[in-house]
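Q: Structure for this?
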Amino acid sequence: MAKKQYSFYPGCTSERKASAANYMVSVNAMCEKLNIKLNEIPDWNCCGASIGYAEGGELPRHVMNARNIALSEQHNPKQDIVATCAACWLGAKESSERLSASEQLLADTKEVLKEAGLDVQLKNETPIRHMVEVLIEDIGYEGIKEPMAKPLEGIKFAGYVGCQTNRPFGVDGESFENPMYLDKMVETVGGEAITNYERKVTCCGGALAFSEPEKSQVQIKDIIEAAYDQGADMIVTPCPVCQMNVEVYQGQINKTYNTKFNIPVTYYSQLLTVAYGGDIKQAGLDGNIIRAKRLEEIASK
Amino acid sequence: MNTLNTAMVEKYRNDFLKEVEENVEEGHWVKMCMQCGVCSGSCPFGPDWEHPPQEIFMMIRAGKRDEVLATESMWMCTSCYNCIVRCPRELPITHIMHGLANYAHRLGLAPKMNPTRRFAKIFWNNIAKTGRVNEMALSLKLYFMDGFASGVKKSLAMAGVGLGMLKTKRLNPFTLFRHKGVEKPKQLQAMLKKAKEIEDRRKGLAS
Amino acid sequence: MSDTKTAAYICKGCGLGERLDTAQLANLAESEGKCAITRQHDFLCNQDGVGTIRNDIDNEGVTHVVIAACSRRAKTEAFNFDDVALTRANLREGVVWVRPDSEEARETTQEMADDYVRMACAEIQYMHQPAGNQEAGSNKRILVVGGGVSGMTAALESSKAGYEVLVVEKTAELGGWAAKLHRRVPTREPFADPQDAGVVELIKAINDDQNVQVFLNSTIVRTSGAPGRFSVDIGTESGTTTTENVGAIIQASGFRNYDASQLPELGFGQSPDVVDQAGLEELAKQANGKPIQRPSDGKEVNSVVFIQCAGQRSNAEGHLPYCSGHCCNTSIKQAMYFKDANPGVDTVVMFDDLRTPGNGEDFYRSAQRKGVIFTKGKPQGVNKNNGQLEVKFHDMILDEDAIAKADLVVLATGQVPNSGADIEQLAAASDSEDTQNENAELTVPVDSILNLNYRQGPDLPHLRHGFSDSHFICFPYETRRSGIYTCGPVRRPMDIAQAAVDATGAALKAIQAVENASVGRAAHPRSGDLSFPSFRKEGCTQCKRCTVECPFGAIDEDEERYPVFNESRCRRCGTCMGACPVRVISFENYSVDTVGQQVKAVDMPDEFDEKPRILLLACENDAYPALDMAAQQGLVYSPFVRILPVRCLGSVNAIWISDALNSGYDGIMLMGCKKGDDYQCHFVKGSEMAYDRMGKIDDTLQQLQLETERVVTHEVEITDIHRVPQLINEYAAKIDEIGMNPFKGF
């Protein structure tokens, strides 16, 4: 099969020694096995994230994203833009839609991009997609299964889809209230999916994690509790913000609520990498603060 | 700032709905709300809002300008988009809330001490500087935004978190000194400045 | 009876042959059932089986046919022999499908089948092939009462189908309320703007139609007769009267506006600047697209508040308890009158629940786009202050009291049906008069619409809140007077679009009625039935029960107070037959005997056999189909029950109950449709009558020193597929508990 090529928008958290560095490591290993080539957009910038609105306003935010799209159109022509981070995907896709819908905004954006000698076409030749869309729609569940060497037998996963990978755009036309693709992916590589995990799409309070941590930690507590209630061994998620929030605050939550949370929070790409025979390092499992021991066992077999 | 606010009060008199339609991102949708309340019921932080979205929309129509622009409510939005996907009228509620917050902030009416407002400002300035997030600088700036003593306290409380991130190589203390952003940060800064100028001109916010 | 020849056909298909001893069934039909011919067939509904029956009728002189096969509701097209009396013994849905296929069940299952064959043979001996109504009227003209949108649409639709129509309109012009509208709610994509009401075109179509004759300034002075032969006196304002004969009547008498002067708290009558929706249409018509002016001083209206649900959807004294359906869309439309003329006008629609059915949602959105403000609020009062109206209200979203200032206030009041006299009130009044004056004439109030000369009163019975309806889901347009149909807001509150659809439906009903009447067939729900009731005059005691209890006013009285049946008005439910204490009323194919003999035909095991017998009289409209469907799903019930379909529980005569108890049945179940205000009875009052009568049976049971549980009545819906077998089984257990009927064997 010919290599599938995409214009890749990695995003800030994926950088070396950034909060989702290990996500990036596992994505690279996974794509290798699936024969996917990711061509990084040169000199990309931050998407503005959801919180950017307050100070950034409207046009500057769209300019940030339009700059990335313009760079992609220029350097990786006719390649779909793929993001691994929910916020990057959403920011880029939202700007692209909004600019396509408003001649005024598009004209203003083009005028600003001229400063950098750039232009943006937005002819919809390069749809903006999330990595999981590439997996489900382009590779397919059969294709995901193909390279499997070590099924993830006996591990129960709570598939935590979260907010922005799910809303407002959704993946593969699935329901916003109960998307199943993450569960199907888990089952495809031999894991046991808790399909009725009731906090599957609950907000982790990400945007408030810094500013109002006590509020966001109530959310995180519910998300973890529900996973434990259903006997999950670990949580799996497609979103770097979800991953970080649900993982790193467990210690603080334990202090506040006198709980004993210690549940690993992994990425789907880590699952696939391990199933494909990758080792701990390739799967970025050494980057998890709460180590996913059961996955590591399989990885080191 | 206050002159800007006074100018807007002058311009729109009592028609706050019109002011919102013309100046707030996606504000033209406000009139389309049918008051079903699904947004308020769907918000994960619904109970924390002084005025949930349904009420905000009603207040805008009722011309309660000062109350709307000064409320902490919109700042509770976590951008989870639950309201958007559930709204039977397909109002882009999340964006309207963002737009209102931004507008209130622009007019200097947003609550000064609101932590999310302050975080948002720090965040944008962080990314606007180099084009990419500097997580280390962002965290420290945040912890120390209320002064040195409070910052030390918060940092200590978060020390466990930071240490974990450091150990797993997911936080880089050296970016404090040299953070790799886009190749020409000055050019990006100029672009953002220009974008803001255009936006202000379009919305009549240019002073 | 010499020319009677009965044949019984026993089917062995669908597993009947394997599960039952069909030879024994044939034997029974011959010996006990007195059938001249008995045949078994492997597959009776196939061409050969049907051919066999046909051949016997044509060449062997068979006049009465018993088909022992599947339910009477199955294979009706195959077993359609309309030149003989015919009955069906239900061996499939009634026996083998509701019994387990096991050795121990075999004996009781066979007993069920034996009894059903006995019952069918007993019934057929008392059945006659219906000859059809001799009183059939063949007039196919259709009278439409009311010249509004409903009436005109009904007239045009009937005419298009080839029927001659008379339209009687009380006023000097056609058009009704719709003609008074400035614009109407849109009917076409994109449902965004008010559109022309289209009344001018409708009136022109009526005037151009050679099939339609219009009587203006006219009312109905007197209506008599029956479907196919109504005689109607049409009186004009000038006092002249013409008599016309018609076959069916469509009453489209519409509505009048709720009297807003009953709402002084909302400012009506206090200020000329408070109007109802009709008042606003007048102002809009005057303005004709220019800015609307307020009545008090002619100032251009710059702010207007619409108060929804004014005097309606409320249980307060003098208010309408119901929703009039159109008013939300109407206020949206009227708000657009202002916005379209001048977008700067403040328009507020104050609502509690905004209800915009159909494409009204698009219209609602369009109004929001135009800047109409919708406020969820409860109005508390409207006052005038410094020349401006103030609407005090409670904002239900912000939970605070507030004031909305307005140049004009529009009250969205409701529709009150023009349904004529309330005949129940009239009857109650005449009862009290009767005590003083035996010969008191019924005083017909001026507002009667039809002036029927029926003994039951001059107008159609009202269903609820004064609306003339029968059942809004199961049988709309039907009224409780055969051949007379209602449509439009006299039936239930509605808007123009709904009224037009309604009128079309009613026109179809009227056409069906004249066609059925012309060949002497029944209308809904026994459409096509040729049987009709007759009575033995010599036995009649002139008790009037049949005339009073007929739900359809089909029976009048002659001077000697004997019943006079208007067969064409009759729906063939048999409520009269159930009511008759001396059992003189019967149909050719349904009578006290056809049922009574079946009750008696069942083989009654003696007390020590431990085989109780339960008689189940099941309404053919809902209960019997539910039983059939239970059988289709393989649900099992007690083998001790014997099911006998009846046309309606209203036709159940008390004699059947006492006969059954006397002949040893241990329990009797009646299953009929829901009664009461939310009735589902296809004959409106039948199941209610049955309940009343069975209440009296309790006394009889006590006199006989029998437990009152020996007779039970259940309301059953067609969807009660699982409940019906459960009821039977529970009752069988109950009978087991209270023991056998002590009258057994006497």
